[in-house]
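haha ok so turns out i had the wrong file open the whole time. this is the CORRECT one, sorry everyone. sequence first:
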Amino acid sequence: MTLLTRWDPFREFVTLQGRMNRLVRDSFGNEGREEALTTTAFAPPVDVYEDEHNVTLKIEVPGIEEKDIDVRIENNTLTVHGERKFEKEEKEENYRRVERQYGSFTRTFTLPNTVDQESVEADYDKGVLKVKLAKKAEAKPKQIKVNVGSQKTIESKGPSKAA
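then structure:
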């Protein structure tokens, strides 16, 4: 099975920075509240699975409008870019806690050679972006029929005469 993997060396640092910001914000009350409501980059979670016909990615992007999502394939790399915008309907001072992440994100995946880059579908439903990458015909497993027994019948013409 071919797996798509993405290595982000700074992912742990972003998580640590978020936790430290939350700790400082919670410790010092409302000071720095403006910083708490600003947008930052984030990485939505992705499930990748493969069957005999497709490689499929499911990316959680709730609260993001379809027009704010961009899916591209270039040089054997799938790139998904989007942005979750902070709703300005509520006044910032009315927020007691902000845990949802806002801002732009970019996720990139190196595609296996078995993917047909011309046969890609992307659907967005209930906050989940589903990208279906069809496999090339030659990459799909082929079942070979196994014949049982011999097709030809050998007939004997009687006992052979020895000289």
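The radius of gyration is 28 Å.
again sry for the mixup
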